[in-house]
Amino acid sequence: MTRDPADLTAADHLDAARAMTAADRPYLAHLLAEEAARRTADPATAAGIRASFPDPTATRTETD
């Protein structure tokens, strides 16, 4: 693991997003996936990444 965050790749961010999903931290997973998508040159791949990790605040349903 690198100590400089600028050295992290899109794959590093995706790995971290998957780990946060497994740890039940969906918002952090979403943020990491957004950074992975931002670092991805191919727009279709970036869209796929974003679709795989949707914003949990936009998909949350309120209950009484």
Explain what this protein looks like in three dimensions.
By secondary structure, the chain is mainly alpha-helical. Helices cover 62% and strands 0% of the residues. It is built from 4 helices and no strands. The chain is globular, with a radius of gyration of 13 Å. The model has no long low-confidence stretch (mean pLDDT 89).
Features:
64 residues, mainly alpha
List the helices and strands and how they pair.
Blueprint: H1 10-22, H2 26-38, H3 43-52, H4 56-59
Judging from the principal axes of the Cα atoms, what is the shape? globular
Helix content: 55-70%
Q: Low-confidence parts, pLDDT < 50 over ≥5 residues?
A: none
Strand content: under 5%
Distance between the termini: 44 Å
Radius of gyration: 13 Å
Look at the structure and give the mean pLDDT.
89
Order of helices and strands: HHHH
Number of helices: 4
Helix/strand/pairing category: mainly alpha
Q: What can be said about the biggest beta sheet?
A: none
The total count of strands amounts to: 0
Concise structural overview:
With 64 residues, this protein is mostly helical. 62% of the residues lie in helices and 0% in strands. The chain has helices at residues 10-22, 26-38, 43-52, 56-59.
